[in-house]
Write a structure and sequence with these properties.
The complex is a heterotrimer of chains A (about 450), B (about 325) and C (about 290). Chain A has about 450 residues and is of the alpha/beta class. In chain A, about 40% of the residues lie in helices and about 15% in strands. Chain A contains 13 helices and 15 strands. In chain A, helix 7 links the parallel strand 6 and strand 7. In chain B, strands 1-2 form a two-stranded antiparallel ribbon. In chain B, helix 9 crosses helix 11. With about 290 residues, chain C is mainly alpha-helical. The chains are: A alpha/beta (about 450), B mainly alpha (about 325), C mainly alpha (about 290). Chains in contact: A-B, A-C, B-C. At the B-C interface, helix 6, helix 12 and helix 14 of B face helix 4, helix 9 and helix 11 of C.
Chain lengths: ~450, ~325, ~290
């Protein structure tokens, strides 16, 4: 052995001893933990509510609640391809600020903490972890993005932290197992089913689909395909795109080549105008069916002249850019509050109003809670009966022991490209409704 | 021969005392911080481990890989899928993840025999870009952008440690074992051969270093370590998707940045780099996440201009020297 | 016919990959570095163009200004950040371009914001039909624009004193220095030109239904890297041929191969690159080179 190796082997022996010694230290040290005890495991004493908290791994009933404040957290896309949807935070903040100015919830002001996750589920999980364990928020609120919500759900269920009014209609969220997550959207399955029925009523014999390649897209296509197949309509081509993808050209080319009678656009964000513009440029003229999320003002402004004409979508709250609500009182209050508390927001952006609606629902839930703790608030959320003035007439936010879906009605509407406005249509016939009339389509998640 | 040995002794590391102190501190962390911080530190350790893998390739042999996020991803998805779909024990799954990483690395290493320098950077960049696409294409099994939920490793109720502490220490154990292995490697003949290879390949081959086997081997080992980090990531955080930044190009850049900032000291370098790269953006990003990226990139550029050897580099080393052309190293002075 | 339509679409995208690939080659020939940030620079140029048009400027005018500003920007970046590392090890140089990538991306995110925005089109709407294949005016326009730019560049290199000086520095730096050519200045010119080319590529991309957003050129960068690999790192013709090839290959494979979605383009690029590097590492048109570590 040469000198080098002998030195090496000596060093090897020294290192092993060192590591072994430290490992030993670690084992000893682990016996005596120098940290404080783990968090509370007390469950609420109310028996009905006690059921809900019995399975909690850890449960901290009043985290984030002080005598004069309630800390609420949210994680959504401030940046990224879904940043337009992230503008709900302006509406949320404006409503909360206006309530705080009037004294808050029984003297407690709501403190909203906003985190950005850029539509990245891992980041959402990190944010939620930070919000719950570091910021110690009382509840989550208004989380955006189906994948993001699903990513954090098991943890929140385990630790019995309310995730209120999530911005997703994914059918899986309204299953009874998910007690601690409350959805604020009509189920995508309901939308898909209703859109399919419209296509059938319009006489379409073939339908093609372009959808986002995740649970959001799948929720729509599942219900749509089932309804169509039940009625004997053929689904000819299905394409998908990845969220955040810069171009959807090749998918649109394939669909145009296929040339079906109707097309379902189960998309989000800027993919919507890209798809609609592509369809328009291709010369193909199908009956267009889109998700409600494609119809926000910001996205519509990106449409080429004539694109998206006749597109059917659904709505459940009043759209601030719709001239029919120009004199609406509820919207007037909203606009005034926005000017005061969130002047940088665009009041005509649907998402901002959606955030305001979220605020209304949240405050109602908090005020109706029997006890200001997590179990109490969740119980209030699960037994809610709210008529917010920004919801379309006839639509109520209702939950109960057997009703996990709060919103089970939507209004169908048709996009008129020439005037860039929406006309409400009858869900049975597809005919335009007279101005001012509302006729809802009702259903429920068929769980696909 | 003397020239070669001199460079072989290049002191890239802190003293034994320094490293020992670090190890002790690392072990004590979970007992002094609250669970949230401990899980943050565990995340830093995971990234440090990934950077250790990168260090083996880029730090030792000077080959830039912009694709280690893909290896991280291979490890994460392998372990995640095994954990969720089979009943195999976690330890075994992690080893399988390590092996998958190694095999993938060897596969990439084979073409790299003829591909060096910039070519390698390009291939690895495209690999990093292709990995999320692969996951999306296989979304039936992987969950695609939707993601894969994996049950985290959790100690049984009777165990003296809390969940976050146990996870942290599990990752730390892996980090220390790998660090030890790399130390041994560094001081072994293979380690010297590696560094010779990185210094001046023609000369090394003349001295009997078997270039092709070493190259593939180092790639495999480097990829395996980073894959292990990916596996640990998924069993401590519980979620992975094709949108998770650590498996995209952003992740590769993060690893490289950590390596450059922290330097090539075997344990201290990746740790320091990972800590800075993880914590700094979080501090800045409370106000603005975009600003965090800017600060991050600016620090990288600054370090490259001012101290390419990174913060933990103690002696000027070959990164300060002129780029090698095909001229053999000067004959040893008489 | 779908295949013909796809090939036509592929040519359009290919023109843009070719443009960015050419930018990479120009920068490479001047400083011997593959600039991984070339795509991000192009994105910044496109964002700048959006800014100008939002102030009311005509889009062609805005493009011209953006090209000029990009030229200056590229030259300045080369001078301040790339020149200092040219004497350092290759690792450091590569890392520098990656650092530039991160910083350029971040600047785009901060100044432009994350919300995608379309740019006013350079070419009129509409298309003409050739035997069932729809060829949009924008597509023709994009291709023609790249052709014009490339021709201008070739003339510059062949006929002008500056261009000749640039080529001299690219092939024989030491000899050029002896003859009195300012090598450093040529390097700046090289990067300036590359950035200008990138600006044209970025703005052209928006005419193919792509919105301006941070990271909009990331996939294009990957295709362009594949293109320069196919064509040879120092061959302008190679970049163009490679770019068009990649455009067509990508469009055909992702649309026609079952199971391959649009995102599979990245995987296609990887396979292409590996194949080329294994079979003919210097590319179709590159010169046989002694490999640099």
């Amino acid at each position: 052995m040469n000198t080098q190796s002998r030195t090496s082997s000596r060093r090897i022996r020294r290192t092993t001893t060192l590591v072994a010694g430290l490992a030993g230290l670690a084992l000893v040290a682990s016996g005596c933990s120098m940290r404080g005890g783990s968090s509370d495991t007390t469950a609420s004493t109310d028996s009905a509510v006690g059921d809900a908290t019995a399975d909690c791994v850890t449960y901290d009933p009043t985290a984030g609640v002080t005598d004069d404040s309630i800390k609420i957290g949210t994680t959504l896309s401030v940046t990224g391809s879904l940043a337009t949807a992230g503008t709900i935070r302006y509406g949320m903040q404006a409503y909360i600020d206006s309530v705080n100015d009037e004294g808050g919830i029984d003297g407690r002001k709501i403190d909203l903490v906003v985190r950005d996750d850029g539509y990245d589920p891992t980041k959402a999980a990190t944010n939620v972890n930070e919000l719950v364990n570091n910021e110690k928020v009382f509840a989550l609120f208004g989380q955006l993005g189906t994948a993001n919500i699903l990513a954090v759900q098991p943890d929140l269920e385990e630790n019995c932290v309310p995730n209120l009014l999530v911005q997703s209609g994914a059918p899986v969220l309204v299953e009874p197992d998910n007690y601690w997550t409350l959805s604020q959207y009509p189920s995508y399955a309901l939308e898909g089913e209703v859109l399919a029925k419209t296509a059938i009523a319009q006489g379409a014999k073939t339908v093609s689909i372009i959808s986002q390649n995740d649970d959001f897209g799948k929720a729509y296509t599942g219900a749509l395909i089932k309804t169509l197949e039940d009625a004997g309509v053929e689904v000819t081509k299905q394409t998908t795109y990845e969220a955040g993808s810069p171009s959807v050209d090749s998918q649109v080319t394939q669909l145009a080549d296929d040339g079906a009678d109707a097309v379902l656009v189960a998309a989000l964000g800027t993919a919507c105008p890209q798809i609609l513009n592509g369809i328009h440029a291709s010369g193909w003229e199908p009956q267009i069916l889109t998700t409600a999320l494609c119809t926000s003002k910001g996205l519509l402004s990106l449409l080429d002249p004539g694109a998206g004409d006749g597109g059917i979508s659904s709505a459940f709250y009043k759209s601030p850019s719709d001239p029919r609500w120009a004199d609406d009182e509820a919207l007037a209050t909203y606009r005034a509050a926005l000017t005061k508390y969130a002047p940088e927001a665009d009041p005509n952006e649907d998402y901002v109003l959606d955030g305001w609606l979220e605020g209304q629902l949240l405050v109602d839930i908090l005020k109706s809670a029997k006890t200001m703790d997590r179990a109490g608030v969740m119980e209030s959320a699960r037994n809610a009966n709210i008529s917010a003035d920004t919801l379309l007439p006839g639509i109520e936010f209702q939950t109960g022991p057997d009703k996990y879906e709060p919103l089970t009605s939507v209004q169908l509407r048709r996009f008129d490209a020439a005037t860039k406005t929406f006309v409400f249509v009858d869900p049975e016939t597809g005919e335009d409704l007279p101005a001012g009339e509302v006729k809802l389509a009702t259903g429920s998640a068929t769980g696909s | 021969m003397p020239e070669l040995i001199k460079s072989a002794k290049s002191r890239r590391n802190l003293t034994w005392a320094g490293n020992a102190a670090i190890v002790v501190l690392l072990i004590l962390i979970p007992f002094f911080f609250e669970p949230f911080r401990v899980s943050q530190f565990a995340q830093i350790l995971v990234i440090a481990l990934a950077v250790m893998g990168l260090n083996l390739l880029t730090g030792f042999t000077g080959q830039v890989s912009v694709g280690h996020s893909a290896f991280f991803g291979f490890g994460a998805y392998t372990v995640g899928l095994l954990q969720e779909r089979t009943a195999l024990p976690t330890g075994l799954n992690l080893l399988i993840g390590l092996a998958v990483g190694g095999i993938t690395g060897a596969i990439i290493g084979l073409p790299s025999l003829r591909i060096k320098g910039t070519h390698l950077a390009i291939i690895t960049l495209v690999l990093a870009a292709a990995f999320p696409s692969l996951i999306s294409m296989l979304s039936e099994y992987t969950g695609g952008t939707q993601g894969l939920r994996v049950e985290r490793i959790t100690p049984d109720p009777g165990f003296p440690l809390a969940a976050d502490q146990a996870r942290y220490l599990a990752v730390l154990a892996a980090v220390l074992i790998i660090a030890a292995c790399v130390f041994f490697l560094d001081r072994s003949r293979t380690g010297r051969a590696l560094r010779a290879l990185g210094d001046n390949e023609t000369a090394a081959v003349t001295f009997g270093v078997r270039s092709s086997r070493l190259r593939v081997g180092v790639f495999a080992a480097s990829a395996a370590i980073t894959a292990l980090a990916g596996g640990l990531f998924v069993v401590t955080t519980g979620f992975i998707s094709s949108g998770t930044s650590l498996v995209t190009i952003v992740g590769s850049v993060e690893f490289l940045t950590a390596l450059v900032i922290g330097g090539r000291a075997i344990l201290a370098g990746p740790l320091l780099g990972a800590a800075i790269v993880e914590l700094l953006p979080n501090q800045v990003s409370q106000t603005s996440p975009e600003l965090a990226h800017l600060v991050y990139g600016a620090i990288l550029i600054f370090i490259l201009l001012v101290a390419p050897n990174g913060i933990s580099g103690l002696h000027p080393s070959r990164w300060f020297r002129r780029p090698n052309t095909e001229k053999p190293s000067p004959a040893p002075s008489a | 016919m779908l295949i013909l339509q796809l090939i036509v679409d592929g040519f359009g995208k290919g023109a843009i990959y070719a443009a960015l690939a050419l930018a990479i080659v120009v920068a490479n020939r001047s400083t011997g570095l593959i600039n991984f940030a070339q795509g991000e620079f192009a994105t910044l140029s496109a964002m700048f163009t959006v800014l100008l048009t939002s102030l009311g400027m005509n889009v062609w005018f805005a493009l011209l200004i953006a090209v000029g500003v990009s030229f200056i920007g590229g030259a300045v970046v080369q001078f301040l950040l790339v020149r200092p590392v040219l004497k350092r090890a290759h690792v450091v140089q590569i890392m520098m371009t990656i650092g530039l990538y991160v910083v350029a991306n971040a600047i785009g995110e901060i100044t432009f914001g994350p919300t995608p925005k379309p740019l006013a089109p350079l070419f009129p709407d509409g298309s003409f039909d050739v035997g069932g294949v729809r060829i949009s005016y924008a597509l023709v326009g994009v291709i023609l624009l790249q052709v014009v730019v490339i021709t201008a560049l070739s003339l510059f290199f062949a006929r002008t004193k500056l261009g000749l000086g640039f080529r001299a520095v690219a092939t024989a730096p030491e000899a050029s220095r002896i003859v009195g050519i300012r090598v450093g200045r040529m390097h700046m010119v090289g990067w300036g030109l590359a950035a200008a080319l990138g600006a044209v590529a970025g703005v052209s991309l928006t005419n193919l239904n792509v919105y301006v957003q941070p990271s909009m050129m990331t996939t294009v960068l990957v295709y362009s890297l594949a293109a320069v690999t196919i064509g040879g790192y120092d061959s302008a013709i190679g970049a163009i041929v490679g770019g068009v090839l990649m455009g067509v290959i990508e469009t055909l494979v992702t649309s026609l191969v079952p199971g391959f979605t649009a995102e599979a383009g990245m995987i296609v690029s990887l396979v292409v690159i590996v194949a080329v590097l294994l079979i003919r590492p210097q590319g179709l048109f590159g010169r046989e080179r002694v490999s640099r570590a």
